[in-house]
Design a protein that fits this description.
Elements (H helix, E strand, L loop, with lengths): L13 H22 L1 H12 L3 H27 L4 H19 L5 H16 L1 H12 L5 H33 L11 H10 L1 H9 L21 H12 L4 H7 L4 H26 L9 E5 L2 E4 H26 L1 H7 L3 H31 L4 H30 L6 H11 L1 H8 L5 H16 L1 H11 L6 H31 L2 H7 L4 H20 L1 H7 L5
Antiparallel strand pairs: 1-2
Helix pairs in contact: 1-4, 1-6, 1-7, 1-9, 2-3, 2-7, 2-15, 3-5, 3-6, 3-10, 3-13, 3-21, 4-5, 4-6, 4-8, 4-9, 6-21, 7-8, 7-16, 7-20, 10-11, 12-13, 13-14, 13-21, 14-24, 15-21, 15-23, 16-17, 16-19, 16-20, 17-20, 17-23, 18-19, 21-22
C-alpha cells in the first residue's frame, strides 16, 4: 500500500491557526507558573520571614538572570533544531520545577527551584516566535503576536485566580501545623499549577515543524550540530569559560584584555551595590543565606551577584557573537533601531514587571483584603483587560502599516507614554473598589505595546536569526526589567516603609524610554530596508 503524500505546509492556513492556539496556551502556562508569586507573596513572606526586597529577588532577579542566561543558548538551539521538540521539552521542564518549588522549605531552596523554572521557560519564547513567524506571512505577524501575547494575560489572570482560591481554601481546610505532609498553602499552589503543564507538553510534541524561512520565501536548510552550537553558545557567555570560546575564535590579545576588564568592573560593581542597598534597610530585613570564611552572604548579595553574572553574560555574548557570527551581530547589536527598541522594551518592562509583582500584594495589604477576593478579581482584570489591550495593539499596528512603516513603533510609543500619569491616579485610590475600577485602564495602555514591538524585532532580521532575536529580547527584558523592577520596588518599600512609594518611584525612568523610542522611530525604515544588504556584507549567503 502506497503511503499517503505528506501534507503541504500552508502559510496562514487552518493548521497554522491551530499551532498559534497551542503556542498561546504554552505562553499562558509560562506566566501561570511564573506569576503565581504575586498572589502568594504575602503568605510566603510570613512563612519564610522574608522582606519585600527578598520577595523581589525571588520573583525577579533569580528567575530573570537564569532565564536570560539560558535563553541565549536555547535561542541558538531554536535556530538550528526542531522548534516543536524544544517547546515541548521546555514546557515539561519548567512544569516539573514549578512542582519542586512547592516542596521548597526555605529561601535558598526556593531560589534554586525558581532558577530551574527559568531555565525551562528560556526555551519557550525563542522556539514559539520562530515557529509562528514561519507559519504566518509578514502582514499578519502583528495580529499573530497579539494573539500569542494574549497568553500572557490568560496566564497572569489564571495564576492570581487559582493561587488566591487555593491559598484560602487550604487555610480554611487545615489549621496551622495540621496540613498533610506539613505543606503550607503557598506550597500547594505551586504544585496545583505545575502538574497540568506536563499534559500540555505531550500535546505540543505532536505539532508539525515547517521549513525554516517558509513564510518569507527564503528557505534555509537545517544547520549541522545544533546541540554542539548551543553548548558553545553557553560556554561562550559564562564568565571565565568564555576565554575558551575566544581561543576557538582565534581572538587577538586585545579581546582577552577587554573581557578581563569587563569581568573586573562587573564584580566591583556588584560589591559596591550590595553594600549600598544593604545599608538602606534595617539588618532584620537582610536574610543570611550562608557564610564563607566568616563573611555572611545575604539576599542582597544574591541580588547583585546574580545580576553581575547576567551583565557578564551579556558582555561575553556580544563579544563572541561579533567574532563568530558577524551577520547576526550586525543585524541585532549593530542596528540602531533594534538596539534602541530593545533598550526601550527592557526599561519599560522594569516598570511592568514591578507593577505585576506588587499590585495584588498592595491591594491585600493596603485594603486588608483576603487572597481569595483579590486573586479572582485581579485575575479577571488581568486576563480580560490584557486580552483586549494586547489584541488591540497588534490589530492597530497591522492596520497602521498600510499608511506608515513606523506604525508599529507609534503604537509602542503611545503605550509607553500613557502609564506615567495614569499610575498616580490608580495608586491614589481610597477604596478597594475604586482601585479595581481604575486599574484596568492602566492595564490596557500598558499592554498595547508588546505585539508591535515583537513583530518589529522579527522584521529587522533574517529567518535564521529569529531565535537569537527572541533570545536578545528575553535577555534585555529579563536582565533589566525582571531582575531590577520587582527588587527596586521592594528595596524602596523596605527603606521607606511604603509600598506605594516603591511602585511610583520606578516610573521616573520613563523619559529615558521615550528617548530610546525616538531613536528607533528615526532609524527603522532604513534599517529594515537594508537588512539583507548589511547581512551580505558580513558574509551571509543570501
Amino acid at each position: 500500500m502506497t503511503p499517503p503524500p505528506p501534507r503541504p505546509f500552508i502559510v496562514g492556513g487552518r493548521y497554522a491557526w491551530y499551532v498559534l492556539a497551542i503556542c498561546t496556551f504554552v505562553s499562558a502556562f509560562s506566566l501561570l507558573d511564573r506569576q503565581i508569586l504575586t498572589i502568594i507573596g504575602a503568605d510566603l513572606k510570613a512563612d519564610l520571614k522574608l522582606s519585600d526586597a527578598e520577595v523581589g529577588v525571588l520573583y525577579g532577579t533569580v528567575f530573570g538572570i537564569f532565564y536570560a542566561l539560558f535563553g541565549i543558548a536555547l535561542g541558538r538551539l531554536a535556530d538550528r533544531w526542531s522548534r516543536t521538540k524544544l517547546l515541548a521539552l521546555s514546557l515539561g521542564g519548567w512544569s516539573v520545577m514549578t512542582v519542586l518549588s512547592g516542596m521548597a522549605g526555605g529561601f535558598g531552596t526556593l531560589a534554586a527551584a525558581r532558577a530551574g523554572v527559568a531555565v525551562g521557560e528560556a526555551g519557550g519564547n525563542p522556539a514559539a516566535f520562530s515557529l509562528l513567524a514561519d507559519w504566518f506571512p509578514k502582514h499578519r505577524r502583528g495580529t499573530v503576536m497579539a494573539i500569542f501575547g494574549c497568553g500572557v494575560s490568560i496566564g497572569l489572570g489564571a495564576s492570581m485566580t487559582i493561587g488566591g482560591l487555593v491559598v484560602d481554601a487550604w487555610k480554611h481546610a487545615y489549621a496551622p501545623g495540621a496540613a498533610p505532609f506539613g505543606l503550607h498553602a503557598w506550597q500547594v499552589a505551586f504544585i496545583v499549577i505545575g502538574l497540568p503543564g506536563l499534559a500540555l507538553a505531550a500535546l505540543v510534541s505532536t505539532l508539525r515543524e515547517p521549513p525554516r524561512g517558509l513564510s518569507d520565501g527564503v528557505i534555509q536548510p537545517p544547520l549541522p550540530r545544533p546541540f554542539a552550537a548551543a553548548g558553545l553558545e553557553l560556554v561562550a557567555v559564562l564568565p571565565l569559560l568564555s576565554f575558551i570560546r575566544l581561543r576557538q575564535l582565534k581572538a587577538g590579545t586585545g579581546e582577552y584584555w577587554l573581557s578581563a576588564a569587563g569581568l573586573i568592573c562587573v564584580a566591583a560593581g556588584a560589591v559596591l551595590l550590595t553594600r549600598f542597598s544593604s545599608g538602606l534597610v534595617p539588618p532584620a530585613k537582610l536574610h543570611a543565606l550562608f557564610s564563607v570564611g566568616g563573611v555572611t552572604v545575604t539576599s542582597h548579595a544574591l541580588q547583585w551577584g546574580t545580576l553581575a553574572l547576567g551583565v557578564a553574560v551579556v558582555l561575553a555574548w556580544v563579544q563572541t557573537l561579533r567574532l563568530g557570527d558577524r551577520p547576526t551581530w550586525r543585524l541585532i547589536w549593530a542596528t540602531p533601531s533594534m538596539v534602541a527598541l530593545t533598550a526601550a522594551s527592557a526599561l519599560f518592562m522594569t516598570i511592568n514587571y514591578g507593577l505585576m509583582a506588587w499590585s495584588a500584594i498592595y491591594a491585600m495589604t493596603r485594603f486588608h483584603a483576603p487572597a481569595s477576593q483579590v486573586g479572582p478579581t485581579f485575575g479577571a482584570i488581568a486576563a480580560g483587560v490584557g486580552l483586549v489591550g494586547t489584541f488591540l495593539g497588534g490589530w492597530l499596528s497591522d492596520i497602521g502599516l498600510r499608511y506608515s512603516k513606523r506604525a508599529r513603533l507609534w503604537v509602542t510609543l503611545f503605550s509607553m507614554i500613557m502609564p506615567w500619569p495614569m499610575v498616580h491616579l490608580v495608586y491614589s485610590a481610597r477604596t478597594l473598589n475604586e482601585f479595581y475600577w481604575l486599574f484596568p485602564w492602566l492595564s490596557i495602555v500598558t499592554t498595547l505595546w508588546l505585539p508591535a514591538a515583537m513583530a518589529t524585532g522579527q522584521d529587522l532580521v533574517l529567518p535564521r536569526m529569529r531565535g537569537a532575536t527572541a533570545a536578545t529580547y528575553n535577555l534585555a527584558t529579563s536582565m533589566i526589567g525582571l531582575a531590577m523592577g520587582p527588587f527596586l520596588i521592594g528595596l524602596i518599600s523596605d527603606a521607606t516603609g511604603s509600598l506605594k512609594t516603591g511602585v511610583l518611584s520606578i516610573y521616573w525612568i520613563s523619559p529615558v524610554i521615550w528617548l530610546c523610542m525616538a531613536v528607533a522611530l528615526a532609524y527603522l525604515p532604513r534599517d529594515e530596508s537594508t537588512r539583507i544588504e548589511r547581512a551580505r556584507t558580513e558574509g551571509e549567503p543570501v
